[in-house]
Amino acid sequence: MTAAPAEDIGTRTFTALGTFASLLVTDRRDLELAFGLLTGELLAVDLACSRFRPDSELWQVNHAGGHPVEISRLLTQALATALAAARITDGDVDPTCGRSLARLGYDRDFAHARRDATELAAPPAPAAGWQTVELDTERRTVRVPATVMLDLGATAKALAADRAAACISAAVSGGVLVNLGGDIRVAGEPPAGGWRVGILDDLVCAASASQAGPGGPGRAVIIRDGGLATSSTRARAWQRGGTRLHHIIVPGTGLPVDSCWRTVSVAAATCVDANTASTAAIVRGERAVRWLEELRLPARLVRRDGTTVLTAGWPAGDTEHTEATSTGARA
Amino acid sequence: MHDRFEPPTRPLPALLSDYPPRAAADPFADLDWDPYYPAMADAAADEARDLGLRRLSMLTLHATGLSVVTAIGFTTVFASTAHPHATTVVAVKPSTGPATATGTPSPGPTPTARKKKHHHHAAARQAGATTAPGASAPAAAPAAAPASSPALSPPTTAPAAAPPTPAPTQTTSSGSVPA
Predict the structure, then answer these.
(1) Strand, coil or helix: B169
(2) CB nearest B157 (choices: A88, A209, A225)
(3) Which pLDDT score is estimated for B82?
(4) Is A88 at the interface with chain B, CB within 8 A?
């Protein structure tokens, strides 16, 4: 099969799961079908995994008072994925951080939560620990203690990207790229030259990416398969009582991590793996470099002062990306 | 074929011709059982029965021996293969300890209650429950639903540097940017 020329790529960008979503297909004629599949997948994930929707399954689990709850296949998979991420990272990426985030003010949809700048009312709450989650994947039931609140923000979006890309790839003839707020998964035959992905490591850069013109900040790499994810302490941050907070939590303290890295990008076989590694790397600090090298995960770690560390084959010559997303990757 | 019963046309032969003739002074004449009934037929039947019983007991003995050998064999096989897998894990108490110096959460109390020996079916059933370390990827995942691998896997091809052309990037990867 010959790779499609980049000019034929169809693109659509919209908002979903509290962030932006981008869909690219190598044959623009597949765009409508792929868009329908993607929006269906995102709706299903939101209904299963949202911490804020009272009609979501996760809401029912978090408010079950410690009783077991029957859950869908999708939430079973999302919980199993989150627990696997916790196990692989020795608890650095922990789905029981929900109460920690709520205590820090992230207790409603982020668009609303970040508008509240008042003092926090309660002390931080350490995560209960992922071992407290009793998930039976065979009977599809889950039980968490009454005091535990699950949050799947660290893995559910990446899982949605993996699922959607696999589903779309099975339905269309060409290649597909799904980007959910920076969590990227590609599948199928990539376009000629591969998928060109800009790496943003600054909130200002990310927030203004749609207006970034030639010469804007950032880097670009080419990927052909697997997943790519970026975690940053500068994205999804807010202020309460004059204190700057962000969404990457140290489970043992319930506080935002004070990491030596401001941004970590990782490429892996799946988007879940990439996102798990990038989030854990932020939490692990300096130890992350050796850990990523041992796992042979290509990564780009950006220190607070902007200097970078590359691991396991991440291209040293990644170029300045000349135009961030004005071609439609971002809204 | 006879349609109806027809009596024999000639007298029946003497069936018990070997019986000793009854004398008038027979001391057993007034008995209601026949003391002269020949014992030969019973002797043959007893012999046949004894022979059958001997064969049956030999068969039982062989079957018992075979069962013992089989049981020992299965026990040996289970002891050498099933034991490492046939453990069950229970949820442990939550970790409420402070973070370590490196920011890694305390793992909390060490698990776990173990059942020493399980049947393979029990082990397979337990594998479905992911409550604690050792939990595997979801078994009930839909076909088009890739889940996280047991370990983090690198991509088939590592990212490459984008050529320095004026071509725009097609998308971006940043932190979890709010909408």
Answers:
(1) coil
(2) A225
(3) 54
(4) yes
ipTM of this predicted complex?
A: 0.71
For the question of whether the overall pTM of this predicted structure is more than 0.95, the answer is no
Q: How far apart are CA A324 and CA A24, in angstroms?
A: 15
B120 φ, ψ (degrees, to nearest 5): -60, -35
Does the beta carbon of B144 lie under 8 angstroms from any beta carbon of chain A?
Answer: yes
Using alpha carbons only, what angle is made at residue A192 by residues A188 and A197, rounded to the nearest 5 degrees?
A: 75
**Cis link prior to B112 (omega < 30° from 0)?**
yes
pLDDT in tens, B56-105: 999 999 999 999 999 998 888 877 665 443 333 333 333 333 333 333 33
Residue ranges of B 72-101 with Cβ closer than 8 A to chain A: 91-100
Helix or strand holding residue A204 (H, E): helix A203-207
Across the interface, which of A94, A206, A277 has its CB nearest the CB of B177? Answer: A206
**Structure-token match 């052909």, residue found:** A224
- Residue A258: is its pLDDT beyond 80? yes
DSSP string across B23-81? PTT-TTTT-SS-TTS-SHHHHHHHHHHHHHHHHHHHHHHHHHHHHHHHHHHHHHHHHHH
Task: Please state which CATH number belongs to domain A6-320.
Answer: 3.10.520.10
Show residues of chain A in contact with B174, CB under 8 Å: 181-182, 199-201, 205-206, 209, 230, 232, 235, 263
Between CA A67 and CA A76, with CA A73 as vertex, the angle to 5 degrees is 50
> Which residues are registered as beta bridge partners of B171?
A197
Six-digit token string for A282: 């932020």
- Look up residue A266 and give its two tokens: 């990782």
Q: How far is B79 from chain A (nearest CA, A)?
A: 27
CA–CA gap between residue A128 and residue A121 (Å, rounded): 20
pLDDT of residue B61: 92
